[in-house]
Design goal:
With 228 residues, this protein is α/β, with parallel strands linked by helices. It has eight helices and nine strands. A hairpin with a 6-residue loop joins strand 4 and strand 5 (119-121). The protein starts with a strand and ends with a helix. Bound molecules: nicotinamide-adenine-dinucleotide.
């Protein structure tokens, strides 16, 4: 079975109603990154950080996978598919994709502030001050904040290097180390980039750019790959 590796970003979830970070109406226009998504923000104002992620979680409960997520799940009927996502939502899993690696954490999980190996599924959408792990310390969002290490980049690089076909969907390719994954894919491998605002700077070898929304471009590409 041929191996398809997919790198996704906030754009694939935009048509599900989840805001991206850097588009005109994106999340960062209402919040400064330093105020809500850094270890310093957590030290200064944990209530604000919890509130920011509680809002994101609440929004996620109302969101559904869109035709882009569903198309990727359909690819598994003929290919060995691995998804590397920068998204913290669970829309790939809810669409039916079975191999999803989250680079930047998961909104519906929380973890201990004294022992990062203690990760829990959160019931509902709300995490508050005073919610503690089994060792008695405050729980925090299970999110990789700016300035923190990205441990899953190691398996992600291995996956990118082993791809027979590589897809990139809905990412501005501005956040490293995720943005560097495209360059890890061997030169001879066919690559596709689906993004209505794809930036021509990212021309690597064998790259086919599809300037469409994921909900339109992905189902069409998946049909083509399933027929081919
Ligand atoms: P980004 O906001 O930097 O870029 C989004 C990209 O998606 C842009 O290039 C934009 O042109 C494109 N886009 C917008 N609508 C699209 C559509 N309908 N179909 C396809 N592409 C579309 O997002 P990023 O590159 O993922 O930035 C990385 C950071 O954003 C990550 O750290 C990620 O964790 C975080 N993030 C995640 C979510 C989520 O989990 N849903 C939401 C917002 C941000």
């Amino acid at each position: 079975m041929k191996k398809i590796v997919v790198l996704t970003g906030a754009g694939i979830s935009a048509e599900s109603g989840l805001q991206t970070f850097r588009d005109g109406d994106g999340l960062w226009h209402n919040h400064r990154v330093e105020d809500v998504a850094t270890p310093g923000a957590w030290e200064r104002d944990p209530e604000l950080v919890l509130e920011f992620y509680n809002q994101r979680r609440q929004q996620l409960f109302d969101a559904q996978p869109n035709p882009g997520h569903l198309a990727l799940a359909k690819l598994e009927s003929r290919f060995d598919v691995s998804i590397i996502t920068q998204n913290v939502d669970d829309l790939h899993e809810r669409a039916g994709s079975t191999h999803v690696l989250h680079l930047h954490g998961e909104l519906k999980k929380v973890r201990s502030t004294v022992d990062p190996s203690l990760v829990y599924d959160l019931e509902g959408w709300e995490l508050n001050m005073g919610d503690c792990c089994e060792k008695g310390s405050q729980l925090r969002p299970h999110i990789v904040w700016f300035g923190e290490a990205v441990p899953n980049i190691i398996p992600a690089v291995t996956m990118a290097r082993s791809a027979d076909i590589f897809l990139v969907v809905g990412t501005s390719l501005k956040v490293y180390p995720a943005a560097g994954l495209l360059e890890q894919v061997p030169d001879g491998v066919q690559k596709y980039l689906i993004d209505p605002n794809a930036n021509p700077e990212y021309y690597v070898s064998n790259l086919h750019v599809i300037r469409e929304k994921a909900g339109i471009g992905l189902p069409a590409l998946v049909d083509e790959l399933l027929k081919g």
